[in-house]
Specification:
The chain has 241 residues and is an alpha/beta fold. It has helices spanning 6-12, 23-31, 39-51, 62-74, 89-97, 111-124, 137-144, 162-169, 199-213, and strands at 79-83, 103-108, 130-134, 150-155, 173-181, 217-222, 228-233. It contains nine helices and seven strands. Helix 3 (39-51) runs antiparallel to helix 6 and helix 7 (137-144) runs parallel beside helix 8. 35% of the residues are buried. Bound molecules: S-adenosylmethionine.
Amino acid sequence: MIVKKPELNLKKQGGLKFVKLNERLYTYLSDCRSKTGDKVLDALRAETVRKLPDFAQMQIGRDQGTFMTMLVAATGAKNAIEIGTFTGYSAICIARGLPATGRLLCLDISEEWTNMARKYWAKAGVDQKIELRLGPAVESLEEMGPKPVFDFAFIDAHKPEYDDYYERLLPLMRPQSLILFDNMLWGGRLGKPGPIKHENGRAIDKLNRKLARDPRVESVLLSLGDGIHACRVLPGPGRAG
Ligand SMILES: C[S@@+](CC[C@H](N)C(=O)[O-])C[C@H]1O[C@@H](n2cnc3c(N)ncnc32)[C@H](O)[C@@H]1O
């Protein structure tokens, strides 16, 4: 297999079209947002790091959280679903973008981790908007039937199951709704020549390529956080609404 030299490709495209981040730049961009110093989100992040140091890295970044709040609000989403809630950071960000009558359904398997989420949802004043369902997400999605219709979905649970979540979610998504998948750059390890050894990386790579060619959605892979693959659901058979 011939591997193209990336610098030749970039020259043809007029140079770098991205900025490599480092800690200084990330801190800078993280500071250049509305409502930095959010007391509830900062306290939740701190408690998660203190009590769950081995898992705290699973939380989305502050910039990603603000972006999701904006996206939910700007698209006028009323019904949202999150698969993979952990201690509730991303759920607060999604719920804050919803109107007062909006609803967010959260799916997760961990009672312990989501107990912390519940505490902070109350502190953030979004607990009335959120319903939490405990159990394996694939089973929860299957039990739902065709009734719920969502305007926004955030997928951030078990990587090898992402495609299963996607296929079960799609019939429940309204045309023009958004589905966001997290960790789709897999820590920067994708795009190398040769087979991917780890199950998670293989599943993510396969899904990135599938989404890019899937006529049911318009898709773009963004270098936000650990990579967000965003999909706009197109009208057609097998979609809700
Ligand atoms: C990356 S964390 C989610 C982080 C969260 N979105 C945040 O920003 O704080 C992944 C979560 O998925 C949950 N999870 C893993 N496998 C699952 C499954 N099969 N069904 C439902 N939830 C699952 C875990 O319990 C964990 O809380």
